[in-house]
Amino acid sequence: MIPYGRQSISDEDIAAVVKVLRSDWITQGPSIDEFERKVAHYCGAAYGVAVANATAALHIACLALDVGPGSLVWTSPNTFLASANCALYCGADVDFVDIDPGTYNMSTWALEVKLMAARAAGRLPQVVIPVHFAGQSCDMAGIARLASEYGFKVIEDASHAIGADYCGGKVGNCQYSDMTVFSFHPVKILTTGEGGMVMANSPVMRERLQRLRSHGMVRDAALTAAHGPWYYEQQELGFNYRMTDIQAALGVSQLDRLDTFVARRRELAARYDRLLADLPLQVPKQDPNGTSSYHLYPVWIDEAKSRHGRLKVFEGLRAAGIGVNVHYIPVPNQPYYQARGFQPGQFPNAERYYAGAISLPMFYSLTEAEQDAVVAALRAELT
Description:
The protein is 40% helix and 15% strand. The chain has 14 helices and 17 strands. It starts with a strand and ends with a helix.
């Protein structure tokens, strides 16, 4: 089976992990600081705060912006559950903004229309979480303009998008947002096994994030000088969301190859674009203001022109040994969210995209022969 995603682990990665295992630092050691500094430097952000996974990163990012009961958070319906659940963990309410039918990212036009209605109703969001679907940045300049006009904070969910470019900079530099979140799950571009990171430019935000990831606890020179070297103090309710030094060492090693990973994914995406050009489907649209890092390569099946619909195509590809997947079922269509009042048809662009979406295999070590096999199987199902 050719999977839709696969991590790439080198001998250098293994050696880096073994080095930590043979050291005195397995949990909180120097590799975490090194990983945070190197990711921040790569992206052009001032700070990175490493955590156990991207869900934890989204959760503490919301808390750092004082999201809580009475708050309202908006995100994209075309995303994994965590982008919305993070607000519910804080006791806030969640709503969604429909996607652009070309990029599948949050539509800036739909956001502005919804904001105008929300202002009239007196219920503006406190935080908006745009999601850089498949590795392509949202229209962050447009969203930042609206954030300034309507007074909300912005957390970029860049779980798919480390290594992506936008308006001359790297995604993660927080030029147009308050914070950015990355995921290092094994199917992502860079992995630490499980893991995530919050990027920020504010030292106050960094300090709050560090406190929230570790039980709300503070241990600094002023406190130990006053009480003794053992002293620590819990100043708010936090969590055990810490990344281990083992994971961070893997991340530092993987980071050395990040540009190589992204370059290969872009080559594969360009090759898919060429090979699929005559088939009845829509390939990913690239916004001219950025370049995707292609965590995913989603295609949209045009059922009106295809021999089979999405389900038959999906089943045929799986039967042919192609491990395709679907990203994503719109979050408001999940039973849990339907029980909270959302109804089918509220976000038509996300639903239309989901009805025809299939993610083709996309990973660093995918060979051209494997890619040819994917295209041949897809052609057989569609024509």
